[in-house]
Specification:
Layout lengths: L8 E2 L1 H11 L11 H9 L2 E2 L9 H10 L4 H9 L4 E5 L3 E5 L7 H8 L12 H12 L2 E2 L17 H12 L2 E7 L2 E6 H4 L2 H4 L5 H16 L1 E3 H7 L4 H7 L6 E5 L6 E3 L15 E2 L10 H8 L21 E5 L2 E11 L2 E9 L5 H14 L4 E4 L8 H12 L1
Parallel strand pairs: 1-9, 14-15
Antiparallel strand pairs: 2-4, 3-4, 5-7, 6-7, 8-10, 9-10, 11-12, 12-13, 13-14
Helix pairs in contact: 2-4, 6-7, 10-11, 10-12, 11-12, 14-15
Length: about 400
């Protein structure tokens, strides 16, 4: 693809601030629109099974809005058919109005020749019939999620309902105790959105535009990664997606920006917070390194003896920079910072503030620091925590 001439030249700092504003971390948050506003603004919020302080889909709005109630978060996602769960960057909560734009992916799954699980005869029709007659059900209620304790040893009913989910005939309408609750799309999706009438080009153009808006500015790889599109899919539609080509100092690759992000300089208050490792600000490792000079890697699936920063190390955002990491845990009403990494003494107040706010959010009354990678900073951190906690 021939890259058009850039319409603007951005400094690295301008690009960083544009990205922070686009992700909801610079400027006053829109509290009136709340969690639903965060979801629409980001376009996708990743789900994950790991729960330390809270699950990732709770941590994402918390990081932007502050101590919003956890029930409020769940209700905002699932009540009144406001969202649906589908495969985007990964398994994500998506605004319901974007249902038509994932038609390209549903069609691709229907045309997929190979699957990891065999579908038993008549299991698919049996699951659809049961949902139609009984209403929303979990996989267990449909006949059992697994045949054995092996994570991927799914029952025939589970294979069938997950296949129906990918095809778009079934929708996950909520998570109940982390179990998906399935219902027929014809009941769960508003009629005006239900039918797959958009062709692949229209779907891809919309998702590329949304990714650019949610990123503020990004390379081809950044934009493709947001909804896990292929590079060639981005290339096919980016010219008429509404994004504009820009040049960013030090990036070394062509970039595109949301034109509205270029209209006004990003200004306002910076958020200080712990970030989920699955937060969309840091989804793409190369992007995080390029923008923040910060190497981010989830180590939950790394053998314990090989971990560098901890099981669920949460980056600390302050002043528009990533200034450290905290690997948290909870013991009763104590938030435990099992391992803390600080980017120098100047990071101490911000990390203390982030820990104190997180503790309050999860109903902890105390914070205990176990290990600081720079031992000389342990006492300043504990002293600052005592001050912040009062």
């Amino acid at each position: 693809m021939t890259t058009p001439r850039p319409t603007a030249d951005l400094s690295a700092d301008e690009a960083r601030r544009i990205a922070l504003r686009a992700q909801g971390f610079l400027g006053a948050p829109d509290r009136r629109s709340g969690v639903r506003g965060v979801l629409r603004h980001l376009g996708a919020i990743q789900l994950d099974t790991i729960s330390v302080l809270a699950r990732s889909h709770e941590l994402v709005p918390y990081a932007r809005l502050g101590a919003v109630g956890r029930k409020t978060v769940e209700d905002a996602y699932w009540q009144d058919t406001h969202s649906f769960e589908y495969w985007s960057h990964a398994a994500c909560i998506l605004p319901i109005e974007e249902w038509p734009h994932f038609a390209f992916r549903r069609r691709a799954y229907r045309n997929r020749p190979h699957w990891n699980h065999e579908l038993p005869d008549d299991a698919y029709n049996r699951v659809i019939k049961q949902l139609r007659s009984e209403g929303p059900l979990t996989a267990t209620e449909l006949g059992g999620a697994k045949k054995t304790n092996d994570w991927w040893d799914w029952s025939g009913s589970k294979v069938a309902v997950e296949r129906a989910l990918m095809y778009g005939e079934v929708v996950c309408v909520e998570r109940r105790g982390w179990k998906r609750v399935y219902d027929l799309a014809e009941r769960a999706v508003p009629e005006e959105l239900l039918h797959d009438e958009l062709d692949d080009t229209e779907c891809l153009r919309r998702l590329v535009r949304l990714a650019g808006r949610s990123l503020g500015v990004g390379t081809r790889a950044d934009i493709a990664d947001y909804h896990r599109l292929k590079g060639e899919q981005v290339d096919a539609v980016i010219a008429d997606s509404g994004l504009v080509p820009v040049s960013v100092e030090g990036w070394g690759k062509p970039a595109w920006a949301d034109p509205t992000a270029l209209e006004t300089p990003p200004r306002g208050r910076h958020r200080t917070t712990l970030l989920s490792p699955f937060d969309s600000l840091i989804w793409e490792r190369a992007r995080a390194e390029r923008i923040f000079g910060f190497t981010h890697r989830l180590e939950a699936y790394v053998p314990k003896q090989k971990r560098v920063y901890g099981y669920f190390a949460m980056p600390v955002l302050a002043g528009g920079q990533l200034v450290g990491r905290v690997d948290p845990a909870r013991e009763g009403r104590t938030l435990v910072a099992k391992q803390v990494t600080l980017d120098g003494p100047k990071a101490v107040p911000a990390v203390a503030q982030a820990l104190a706010e997180a503790a309050t959010w999860v109903d902890c009354t105390d914070v205990r620091v176990e290990r600081v990678d720079t031992p000389d900073l342990r006492e300043p951190l504990t002293t600052e925590l005592a001050h912040v906690l009062g």
